[in-house]
Structures are given as C-alpha cells and as structure tokens.
Amino acid sequence: MKRIAILGSTGSIGTQTLDIVAHAPEKFQVEALAGGYNSQLLIEQIQAFQPKIVSVATKELADEVSKQITSTTKVLYGEEGLMEVAASSEADLVVTAMVGSQGLKPTMAAIEAGKHIGLANKETLVSAGHIVTDAARRKGVSLLPIDSEHSAIFQCLNGENRSQIAKITLTASGGSFRDRSRAELEGVTVEQALQHPNWSMGAKITIDSATMVNKGLEVIEAHWLFNLRYDQIDVLIHPESVIHSYVEFEDNSVIAQLGNPDMRVPIQYALTYPDRYPTPTKRLDLAAIGKLHFREMDFNRFPCLKMAFESGIQGGTTPTVYNAANEVAVARFLKGEIAFLQIEHIIESVLLKHESISNPPLEVIHEQDLWARAFATNVQF
Q1: From CA 118, how far away is CA 94, in angstroms rounded?
Q2: Of 138, 141, 134, whose CA–CA distance to 92 is shortest?
Q3: DSSP states along 97-116
Q4: What is the rounded CA–CA span in Å between residue 209 and residue 196?
Q5: Which among 270, 202, 268 is positioned nearest to 20, based on CA atoms?
Q6: Which residues contact 57 (CB under 8 A, 6 or more apart)?
Q7: Is the peptide bond between 274 and the residue preceding it cis, with omega within 30 degrees of 0?
Q8: Residue pair 48/26 in contact by the 8 Å Cβ criterion
Q9: Which candidate among 98, 141, 351, 374 keeps its CA 20 to 30 Å from the CA of 323?
Q10: CA–CA gap between residue 142 and residue 72 (Å, rounded)
Q11: Per-residue pLDDT tens digits for 174-188
C-alpha cells in the first residue's frame, strides 16, 4: 500500500487523484491533505479518506473544519500547516497539485524530507528548475510528472537511451479560442475563455491554455525534467488531444503516447509507477474517432509561447518573472480588470523591464517573483 499526501486536494488534480484512490482503496492510504480555502470539500474528503493531517489556508477555516469532523485528523493552517503536510507526514509520495508558484516551497520541503514527488505544479520547475532538480538528485527522489504531456514523454522514454533523443514534441489542444484569429479575440469574455473544448481543469490553467502560456510553462518544465535543450523541444497543435506528446529519436523513429483526454490516467501512472493497473476511465477507440488533426504552431498567433521559449533560453530569473507576471495578469483578467489580449501585454511589459540574474538562489527567486507581481499589478492601459 502506497501512502500519499496531496497539496491542493480540493482542486482539479487533487480531486481526480482522490478519485483514483477511491477506486483502489487497497492500494493507497491517504496520509495528509492540504485544501486551501475550500473547507467544505476538504471536510468531505476527511470523512471519506480519514487522513492523519490536513491543512487549510487560515485559522478561522481550521476552527471551522475542526468543529465539523468527528475523526482524529489533526487540523493545521497557513504555511506551517502546508509544510507539515508536505514534509512531516508518513507519505511515500507527495502529489503537488497546488496552482502557481506557491507550490515551490512545500515541494522543496517534501524533497528534502525524502518524499517522491507526483509533480502537477509546473511552476515549481519553471521558477526554480535548477534548484529543484539538484535537490531531487541529491536526495534520491523521483520527480514523476503528472501533466499529461510530460507523463507521455516519460512513458515514451521508458527503456530508451535518452542520449539518442533527437527532439520531443508537446501537443497542445489550442485552448478555448484555437479557431479564432487574433482579431476575433477582441472583447472575448471570461466565460468564453473558460470553455475548454477537451479538458476539465481549474480556471487559471484553462486561461493559460487559451493564451498558450500553459504550453510555454510545459516547455520550460520539459527542459528540466528531461535535460533537453530548447531547440530539442517542439509544440504542435492537436485539437483532439489524443496523442499527448511524442519523442523522435536519432534514427527518425517516433514513439507517441495516446489516450482519451482524462487526467486520471497520468495521475494514476505517477501513483503506481512502474506498475500499471486498471483505471476508472474509458478505453481509447480510434475507429470511433476516425481522424486526428495537426497544425504547425503559429508564434504570431500565440506570442506568449514565443516569450516562454525566449525566457527559458535566457534562463536565470527570467522564467520566474514570466510565470509571476502571467499569474497576476490572469488574476486581473478573471476579475474583469483587463481584456484577454492584455494578458500578453502585461507579460511582455514585465519581461522588458526585468534584468535577469543567473543561477539565482531561492531568496533571489522569491525577490524577483515579488518584483514581477508588483510590476504586473501596476501595468496600466
């Protein structure tokens, strides 16, 4: 039985992880959960899975949870509670499913505590890839990717000689507005942007999919996960989201990983690696699908992806700043403060003002993250 902790248990990845656990209770024990602000859902999760430790965002929420549960679950809150869920539980594997760069510190704590990581928080590697991967190597900890694209590449590389990779290709659905021109993006609403055609995801990642920032973050994450140069990483639009990504080798052979767009498959593979078990998902029926389509990436149509490649190549604190600026811009869009196309203008404005610092320690990453957020908050139109 594998013991797991989940950071972000009330979000999209967290709830789907618990769905996997519920379908195979003989294989998993939930040791600890961190649920942020969604106390009511966390209470339901406590009742269903009986974790030893849980954490919420504030003391008020912790008091509320404590009053409504009958189990012996220890209820904590704030950063201290989050860190205890990450590092002090008896979990073998910590699923990092928090949204944004807030996942970096607890992920590092889990690694230092010798926990294997089910990585669904791509911003951790984007902001501090050199530090996270070095720590994982030093502690002998596995970084098991949960993003469908990185899980696909990970699976394609099983048993292969990584020095013989020619390139990898990350597929992209194209997001909510994949069939619109840039002119047709003028005046689009938050509600329209949140209508993803293939995947069921949280608000922030759905907006990132529409701007292609999400794919940009995945490019930077792939650089660190698979130790690849940026000229070895391609992106291809694939509207059906059936081929999740693929690897081309030096002999021109291509190995791809296919499946229905259901996050429970890559989640379970991270939980059970190197084994595979039945999942509560539908089998892929290619005959029923009939055709698969592909389009070359247009960097003029999706400038945020171009900025991600440029940020990754520049390295240092630039990917941190790219990510932080985007988080603020997306939050401003979701609150109705800015238009959809102004997200990319905020990111570009922050990057133009940023002076990159090479090989930054964590404290410098944190400082640059805060600087970028402040600047992005104050960009006016």
Answers
A1: 6
A2: 141
A3: ---SGGGHHHHHHHHHTT-E
A4: 8
A5: 268
A6: 36, 37, 77, 78
A7: yes
A8: no
A9: 141
A10: 31
A11: 999 999 999 999 999
